[in-house]
Amino acid sequence: MGTALLIVDVQNDFAEGGALGVTGGTAVAEGVTALLRDHRDDYAVVIASRDWHDADSDNGGHIVLEGKPDFVTTWPPHCIAGTHGADYHPAFDTSSVEVEIYKGRGEPAYSAFEGATDDGTSLADVLRQRGIDRVEVVGLATDYCVRASALDALGGGVAVRVRRDLVAGVAEETSAAAVEEMVAAGAEFV
Question: What is the maximum alpha-carbon separation in the chain?
Answer without folding.
Answer: 48
